[in-house]
Amino acid sequence: MYACLYVVQTLIPFLLQSQREDERELFSEGLTSVAGGIVALGKFDALHIGHRELAIQASKVGPPFLLSFVGMAEVLGWEPRAPIVARCDRKRVLSSWAPYCGNMAPTEFQIEFSSVRHLTPRQFVEKLLKELGVRGVVAGENYRFGYKAAGDATELVRLCEEYGIGAYIINSVMDKNDYSININSSDVKDRGQVSSTRVRRALAVGDMKYVSQLLGRQHRLILMAKEQEGFRCCKNKLSVPKSCLLNLGPKEGLYEKCYVFIGEDDELLSCNVVIDTEYVHIEMDEVGASCNVVGTQDLSLLRIEFGDSQS
Fold first, then answer.
1. Which of 198, 242, 265, 268 has the fewest CB atoms found within 10 Å of its own CB?
2. Which residue range is the domain that position 243 belongs to?
């Protein structure tokens, strides 16, 4: 069974009891909206079904939040790479989780990674309580935290119990997909669970059906241009430079049965998508549609939702 909840069940009544006792103190310190909530801990690049399961479990105890770190790549010196979910699209994805989370859309709460990088596991938990005012945390069984990843899930439970915070550890959501790609990963953390790495590898080979099943939704590619000069329009074909991409697309090739959302009014058109080395080509079913779009949309915001097929 996916994500079986275990440990610290006795802390649920404690959460409810302590919430009223600490409420005045927490809000008098000027804490942000995450105070009193249940935060899911992890790296939320893809917002895949494993991340959604964390939010589901958090929502069973209180208002669900995702605790995300900003600036991690810059601090750790990682090579820049495109996000799987465009920043401007994350709120839409989280809103789509509301039916799974007791009709509560999880809220993403961001803190600077530089502010927590050198914290010990104990100091990190202290920050969750004293600075953020959280009532509980949810994490996966492989979660590690603290400087140089010194703390594991067991340590998280122990420290949270000591500080009076509810701690909920869930099993990983495993990738049991028939379309699963043999990753051959040397990462010791990879035991076949759903991960952002798997999503990236599925996009790299253009397996959109597999991508959809990992994400729990169709992959949406966002393109935005400040100027229309880079757009090429001919009959029913609109070509947009890859420099306009705000997130990670699939490999070069033809993708059928896609949809494009155009402008702020969300005009929806069926299309095929061809990706080459320089451009994303949107071939719309309606002749002349692309030229009409370019002529009426000043912002040039395009959102492509991929189907499950590639030719």
1. 265
2. 220-310
